[in-house]
Specification:
Elements lengths: L5 H14 L7 H8 L3 H17 L3 E6 L5 E6 L3 H15 L5 E2 L3 E2 L2 H4 L2 H14 L7 E5 L4 H11 L3 E4 L10 E7 L6 E7 L8 E9 L3 H12 L3 E11 L11 E10 L4 E6 L2 H12 L1
Parallel strand pairs: 5-6, 5-9, 9-10, 10-11
Antiparallel strand pairs: 1-2, 3-4, 7-8, 11-12
Helix pairs in contact: 1-3, 2-3, 6-7
Length: 282
């Protein structure tokens, strides 16, 4: 790269940091990239840090020492998060989403890259203080959210399937009981997708009783991996017995009336967990 003026360095540096969240980048790398002294790079990073934090884009973590550098941590403030979630609630409440049987059509939401990017940032901000090696979800509707979260955390995504795929090699399979229908089902995960001892964040699009998530937890136990968190886009409150109790939800499906074509959606426990996270990090 040719030598840039400070304005050019700041633009390129900001773009590079945004494209590499949770990645430790040495000052030497930037110094060589822009053919500039480390003192100038440090001054540039101070400017980027100030803007990132004032605009709630995230924070720049500085790690001292010969092997240190800077790391961009995506964040979101409470006002911005509330605006995102309120807009999502309004979208899910649209009456034309109701399908026969009380189901909700969600593919337009899950297929919206901009919206999924926002959801991924919300989850990533909550789990930014934890060591996460991979994001796990079950095919197929949870995949867009999982990839958005994985992008912000800079970790791979492991996909649990309900069938065996020859192309994925050796599989680990378990039987689990669906929390809502009480039916015995099977889920499988390729052995190569996760290493034993991995710290895994489970992400799902919808949770009723939590049977599917409970199954993923049991599957992780089989391959000796650890669950560090659970996030769901929408949870249902019309549940007699919840199979899991430690999770983060973005929205909560409070009521569905098929006859009157009415859907009531509330904010989930996201802000409660956000407050707890702030207390832990203080």
């Amino acid at each position: 790269m040719k030598k840039l003026r400070r304005s050019g360095r700041l633009v390129d540096m900001t773009n590079y940091l945004l494209q590499h969240p949770h990645t430790l980048i040495s000052l030497s790398y930037f110094s060589e990239r822009y053919q500039s002294a480390k003192s100038s790079i440090s001054e540039d990073l101070a400017i980027v840090k100030e803007i990132f934090e004032s605009q709630s884009i995230g924070s720049l973590l500085t790690i001292p020492g010969a092997s240190g550098g800077v790391k961009y941590i995506p964040m979101v403030n409470q006002d911005e998060a509330k605006q995102m979630i309120d807009q999502l609630c309004e979208k899910v409440e649209e009456p034309n989403r109701l399908l026969p049987g009380g189901y909700l059509y969600m593919m337009d939401i899950l297929g919206n890259p901009r919206l999924m990017n926002q959801i991924g940032r919300l989850f990533a901000a909550l789990f930014s203080h934890k060591k996460i090696d991979a994001v796990m979800t079950v095919a197929t509707k949870g995949i867009p959210i999982a990839y958005a979260v994985g992008s912000y955390l800079d970790v791979p995504v492991s996909i649990v399937r309900r069938d065996h795929r020859v192309t994925e090699g050796s599989m680990v399979s378990i039987n689990y009981v669906s929390g809502s229908s009480k039916r015995i089902q099977t889920m499988s995960l390729a052995r190569r997708s996760l290493k034993p001892g991995s710290n895994v964040l489970i992400i799902d699009d919808f949770m009723k009783a939590g049977g599917t998530i409970r199954g993923m937890i049991d599957l992780l136990e089989e391959i000796q991996a650890d669950v560090v968190g659970i996030g769901v886009l929408v949870e249902s409150v019309d549940v007699e017995e919840r199979l899991i109790d430690d999770y983060i939800s973005i929205t909560r499906l409070a009521d569905v009336n098929s006859k009157e074509k009415r859907v009531k959606v509330e904010v989930g426990n996201f802000f409660e967990k956000l407050a707890e996270m702030k207390e832990e990090t203080q």
